[in-house]
Amino acid sequence: MKHRLHRAEGYLKAEIIGEAPEKFIRICMREHVKIWHIVRKNETTLICFIKLADSNTLKKWLKASDCRIRILRKAGLPFFMKKMRLRLGITVGFLFFILLLLILSNMVWSIRVDGADVKLEEQIRSILKQNHLYEGSLDLFIPDTGRLESALSTKLTKVTWIGVSKEGTTYKISVVQKKYPKPKSVTGPRNLVATKQAVVQRLFIETGQPVVESDQFVKKGQVLVSGRIGNEKASRFVSAKGKVVGETWYHSEAQIPLVSQYTLYSGNTYFKYKLKMWHVQMPLWGFKSEPYKQYDREIIRKPIRFLIWKTPFAFIQENYRQKKTVVRKLTQKQAIKDAIESSDKKLLDSLPKGSKIVSSTVDYKKVVNNSLYIRTHQVVNENIAVPKAIDVKKEKKKLKQETD
Amino acid sequence: MRKWSAQFKKWFAEVSDIPEDVVLGVPRLILTGQFRLSIENYESVLAFSKTELRLALNKGELHIAGDDFVLETILEKEIVLQGRVDDVRFVDN
After folding, report:
1. Where are the domains of chain A?
2. CA of A24, closest CA in chain B: separation in Å?
3. Which fold has domain A2-81?
4. Largest interatomic CA distance in chain B
């Protein structure tokens, strides 16, 4: 037990040989050099443990006491270090090997993409590369699979479902691509009819016979452009084609709070990195306990693998995103503007492409409990024509009856 | 004169409750069983062998006889001896 105390400093087990080895002990005592576990071997020899001292001074003391020293054993850290220094090459090589193995064990070796065509696969791989996932990247810096999935599915529109799974050093990406049905087009004889009540504004007709005029009020389902051309005696049916812009009206209601609270991310992020060993977490970087007053915390855990085994070590990244509560106060004028803007946008989203809001007017407004109720109506110009197939036989019969 | 001061020290130790070895500078021996002997307030090691240890005290010598002696610890003021202790003797010279 005693020896262990001196391990850090280093000690010798030595034989002191001389006429009066006790003299050496006395000198050691005088010079305050630790010496312990002394055993007499024979008349001229003592075996003892002695703390490591400068070899020159040791020699001086030996000379003064007429003794010789024979070192039996060298122990302790200084000798160990010396030995290590001699074997530095091997040690460094071994450590390097372990490190290399560790790095290789935590590397992504392959990414398999199933169910995607070549073009989509290329796209997927480029998105993954933006998220630090590529063949040869380190696992520690890759976001978790759920996050990858959402990153992929937000950027890829041609995909119905995407799944990311991890098997050891392989990432598997399964894709189900959207299959669109071929757009069905009525190519046979057809009319164009109104989709909704409107006042016709302009007609752009490629083929067909217009049956309505500008500024005419039309009901839903009314024929706008007839597919029957020619006079009553000699008529034929064509596929009517064209656009009819009608003026339509919409009502919308909105409620906008005049005072509202938002939580916003300020954009400041604080990163903490930790190394988890069994149940102990050792911080590596980022030592503030509470970086922000208000924050959202996200923890990413990455277990460190070694070959096929999971080590009890894990790399933990904690992201603290600063939050801010913002109070927004609106004047009535601003609130009305906002309400109109938002209702216009909502309306346009529900209407076919190419529609235009001509005007929006406020019908009614009222402030109750710090929030504004508003009713507006919009005048919209939109294409109201949709094709509708003509039953040729029926029409012909009808025609016959008319002519008869 | 010297005798008088020794007398005074002895009296002082008795009166003041301070341990005598501190005041007088005399050795203090602690013998544990027969196998371990700790000696405080010694001067130096005169001789050491498997069967005998001779210590110089500030007055006289201490001879310890026995067998299988090992000097477990040597400090400036204290020495610990292990082994079988048969005989402890104070020798005046």
Report:
1. 2-81, 110-177, 188-258+330-404, 260-327
2. 10
3. Alpha-Beta Plaits (3.30.70)
4. 44
pLDDT tens sequence for chain A (404 residues)? 456 666 677 888 999 998 888 888 888 888 888 888 889 888 889 999 888 877 888 888 888 888 898 988 888 888 888 888 888 888 899 999 999 998 888 888 888 888 888 888 888 888 888 888 888 888 777 878 888 888 888 888 778 888 888 887 888 888 888 777 777 665 678 888 888 888 988 888 888 888 888 888 989 888 888 888 877 777 788 888 888 888 988 888 888 888 888 888 888 888 888 888 888 888 888 777 777 888 888 888 888 888 778 888 888 888 888 888 888 888 888 888 888 888 888 888 888 887 888 888 888 888 888 888 888 888 988 888 888 887 777 777 777 777 66
Looking at the complex, does the CB of residue A38 fall below 8 Å from at least one CB of chain B?
yes
What does the alpha-carbon distance between residue A90 and residue A98 come to, in Å, rounded to a whole number? 12
| Number of domains into which chain B is organized | 1
Full domain range(s) for residue B71: 25-91
A35 has a chain B CB within 8 A of its CB: yes
Q: What is the ipTM of this complex?
A: 0.77
Nearest CB neighbour to A40, from listed B46, B50, B72: B50
CATH class of residue range A110-177: alpha beta
Strand partners, A28: none
- Subunit contact B71:A37, Cβ cutoff 8 A: yes
Other Cβ atoms closer than 10 A to A296: 13
Check if the beta carbon of residue A13 is closer than 8 Å to that of residue A73: yes
A26 vs B44: CB contact, 8 Å cut-off?
A: yes
**In a domain? residue B13:** no
- Nearest by CB: A29 against B47, B70, B74: B74
Considering only alpha carbons, which residue of chain B is nearest residue A48? B71
Return the SS3 of A125.
Answer: helix
